[in-house]
Amino acid sequence: MTDELLARHRAVMPSWMSLLYEEPIEIVHAHDRRMTDSKGRTYLDFFAGVLTNSMGYDVAEIGDAVRKQLDTGILHTSTLYLIRSQVELAERIAKLSNIPDAKVFFTNSGSEANDTALMLATQFRRSNQVLAMRNSYHGRSFGTVAITGNRGWSASALSPVKVNYVHGGYRYRSPFRSLPDAEYIDACVADLVDVLDTATAGDVACLIAEPIQGVGGFSLPPDGLFRAMKEVLDSYGVLFISDEVQTGWGRTGEHFWGIEAHGVTPDMMTFAKGLGNGLAVGGVVARGDVLDCFQAQSFSTFGGNPVSMAGATAVLDYIKDHDLQANCAARGAQLLSGLRAADSPIVAEVRGKGLMIGVELIKPGTTDPNVPAAARMLEETKKRGLLIGKGGLHGNVLRLGPPMTLTAEEAQEGLEILVDALAATHAAL
């Protein structure tokens, strides 16, 4: 029973492993974009395991690829041996990255990928100084917590790096929010220069940024911000890392990588989540001279294992064969326009690209974060058969990240539930 499992969870799992909902659910079956819990209730999934189940559930092509690898009897060999599927996938990702002379290193998660990127940048530049964005999130590891610009996810002030935060990623509550796009970019770039000149020793290792901030509430700057920032970074010799853990693989609709919206090629990109469709896979794709900069030996026990490589390759094939980037653009436009048309008094902003949509909730007539409304929205949508997420600095932003295979009919179904739940939440609060 769910109550028994919840009690056992609380007894043996850490208190900081939070669960959604007043009555948490156990998922026991899933197919396409629908999930069924242990009580037999079925839900349309608009959060995809935090954007990880990018193709949905029970996808034959991916399952077949994994089973074919399992049939060889080889789940693991380690990177001490040649792994054909790892080399082939690395070749594809290197080409897709558009990074000159790119090389790839596979990890098990986005946290590990970002931690690896930090080690590479600090080694390459021989500096432990790092720049990150305010309101950012880059993972749970010691190094990535240190560069997370969101206090709700910063578990420790201890740090292996010296970090400074710059403006730009979260516009709604920015001191520059009222500026037009070009002036907003100018103000954020001026802030970057000021931080470099006053708060650092000059020899900064890198700036790491999410093109669209995930945990931060799917917030995003005007297109072109990171191109302007990279011009400054290049003049100082500072590396630029694009955290594509949530924005990669076509999810934003308009581009394959989120950073492409800014017309710039980073020195490094990190990836994870959607590439594995539930399998543990992440990695770094970077300039060859940067990825080769370690002077000591290193490897990854499980990163790039044959099973994950088989599944990830099938995911890339599925994205291409079904033109899912275009589907993300179409379904995202459908959801964005529908939510904006709802014009709810508790909604301050509907933002995002493709199937990465944030809905910032406020107390009517103010800009104050409406945290109770976000919590109530999760319950109201669940009651109506829809699973969504939430985030943002204050926990007042609804996060919508359905599988990239979402159909037009499912998007409309989810939209109607969201609009109805917004009305019910407003009436109740």
UniProtKB/TrEMBL annotation:
PANTHER family: ALANINE--GLYOXYLATE AMINOTRANSFERASE 2, MITOCHONDRIAL, PTHR45688. Its EC number is 2.6.1.44. Belongs to the class-III pyridoxal-phosphate-dependent aminotransferase family. Its cofactor is pyridoxal 5'-phosphate. It comes from Amycolatopsis bullii. Keywords: Aminotransferase, Antibiotic biosynthesis, Pyridoxal phosphate, Transferase. Homotetramer. This is alanine--glyoxylate transaminase. GO terms for molecular function: transaminase activity. The keyword Transferase applies. InterPro entries: Aminotrans_3, PyrdxlP-dep_Trfase, PyrdxlP-dep_Trfase_major, PyrdxlP-dep_Trfase_small.
